[in-house]
Amino acid sequence: MNDAMIRLEHVSKTFPGSATDAVSDLSFEVPEGEILVLVGPSGCGKTTTLKMINRIIEPSSGVIWVAGVNAIETQPHELRRQIGYVIQQTGLFPHRTIAQNIATVPKLLGWERPRISARVEELIDLVGLDSDMANRYPGELSGGQQQRVGVARGLAADPPVLLMDEPFGAVDPIVRTRLQLELLDLQARVRKTIVFVTHDIDEAIQLGDRVAILNVGGVLEQIGTPEDILRVPANDFVAEFLGTDRGLKRLSLIKIHTVDLDPGPVVAPGTSLEEARAAAARYDVDWVGVGSPGRLDGWLHLAEVESAGQVTAADLRPFRSRINTSATLKEALDAIISTRAKVAAVFDGDHYLGMLTAERISAEITQ
Ligand SMILES: Nc1ncnc2c1ncn2[C@@H]1O[C@H](COP(=O)(O)OP(=O)(O)OP(=O)(O)O)[C@@H](O)[C@H]1O
Ligand SMILES: [Mg+2]
Questions:
Q1: Are residues 241 and 318 both part of a single domain?
Q2: What digits encode the pLDDT tens for the residues 3-39?
């Protein structure tokens, strides 16, 4: 037994009366503190896999280990003490308040009332809800708020393992993106071992330390880091599932601060026309940036330098395509194609770091 928090060994599930497997010979492991995302089309066995981990569904064959013990040989209630569960479509109890919903598992475990209240208060804060929501009913919350309650309920007894079944499935893309960022932020603090289910490949790439791509029949087609899967899809199914914008998806995983920047055609005020022309020619552009080391004050058309006879600091045009070093190459590319200059000027706060061109970004994913 190694130190993976969750391990499936050749797990299969065939429902009674069904001719085909819901899950077929599935093996994977999730190290402690990792997020594994299970992704695949509807009916490919994602929910069934989660429910076998906490034994709501019994596997037909295979072995499942959770926190070093054989799940099949553990009492289900003992097992579920280790495992928080956030179910598809939130599954909140409509006639119980938010506080009562969150308190479900601690109550089952027989916690004292003061301990439960303190924990509920802590969780409401942890998932970013207002304390005055505690006594409302789920129907009195927005979709995004309800999903936060679902996450809080899953975390209530502070289990080391969290199973999340499309927890952000029912909200619009903007709220969904926010909930995803919140989950990553939360995970940085609580370090759970998470199996997260979605049918949305972008969500999988955004959240997964590793991603497992399942096909109908519960067949594992590929498992790996988002970078590895996007770089080398194992087969046509995976490639098609990743979509035609695979290159852009890869760019969205690369932060600007991890790549080398070009200094760009940047010259100091007072530079001669000849040198300005040479700087612009190196980048095949008809303009120069004006600044000094660590500074980029603006830019001039070469024609303006020609009429002035040299580079001046007056009447500089501002760079519209400024981008922060913490942004991604996808955002940089967007900045590049949205401006006439065809470069993105990269800053750390006010400090100028360098420029990115479309060629430079392309080289990053074709190297
Ligand atoms: N209780 C059950 N009895 C019989 N068949 C079932 C049962 N639960 C699920 N199935 C079947 O098992 C397969 C996998 O279902 P599962 O719910 O795990 O899919 P899923 O990947 O979660 O899909 P979705 O993305 O739609 O939630 C499906 O073909 C489904 O019809
Ligand atoms: Mg499902």
A1: no
A2: 799 999 999 999 999 889 999 999 999 999 999 999 9
User: Which strands, in side-by-side order, build the sheet including 266-267?
Assistant: 266-267, 287-292, 295-301
Tell me the per-residue pLDDT of 311-331, one tens digit each, with 9 for 90 and over. Answer: 998 889 988 888 999 999 999
Name the residue at shortest CA distance from atom 30 of ligand 1.
Answer: 43
Region 299-320: what's the mean pLDDT? 91
Q: Are 34 and 85 contained in the same domain?
A: yes
162 C-alpha vs ligand 1 centroid, how far in Å? Answer: 20
The residues that bridge with 29 in the sheet, in sequence order, are: 7
Half-sphere exposure of 303 (CA within 13 A, CB side): 0
Distance 154 CA to ligand 1 centre (A): 22
**Interval 100-117 mean pLDDT:** 94
Residues 97 and 205 in one domain: yes
Task: Note the pLDDT tens digit of each residue in 67-105.
Answer: 989 998 988 888 888 899 998 777 899 999 999 999 999
Distance 249 CA to ligand 2 centre (A): 24
Residues 6+ positions from 158 with CB-CB distance below 8 Å: none
pLDDT in tens, 235-253: 999 999 999 899 999 999 9
Is residue 70 domain-shared with residue 156, that is, in the same domain? yes
Q: Is 44 in the pocket of ligand 1 (CB under 6 A)?
A: yes
Sorting pLDDT into bands at 50, 70 and 90, what band is 1? very low
Is residue 218 within 8 Å of 49, Cβ to Cβ? yes
Domain span at 323: 257-366
Claim to verify: residue 246 and residue 308 sit in the same structural domain: no
| Ligand 1 pocket, residue 47 CB under 6 Å | yes
10 plus 134 within the same structural domain? yes
- Residue 346 is part of a domain; what is its CATH number? 3.10.580.10
* Phi, psi for 106 (deg, rounded to 5): -55, -35
Between the alpha carbon of residue 212 and those of residues 65, 176, 314, 319, the distances in Å are 18, 21, 56, 42
How many domains does the chain fold into?
Answer: 2
> Is the CB of residue 127 less than 8 Å from the CB of residue 153?
no
pLDDT at 2: 54
Tokens standing for residue 135: 């006594």
Rounded to two decimals, what is the model's pTM?
0.86
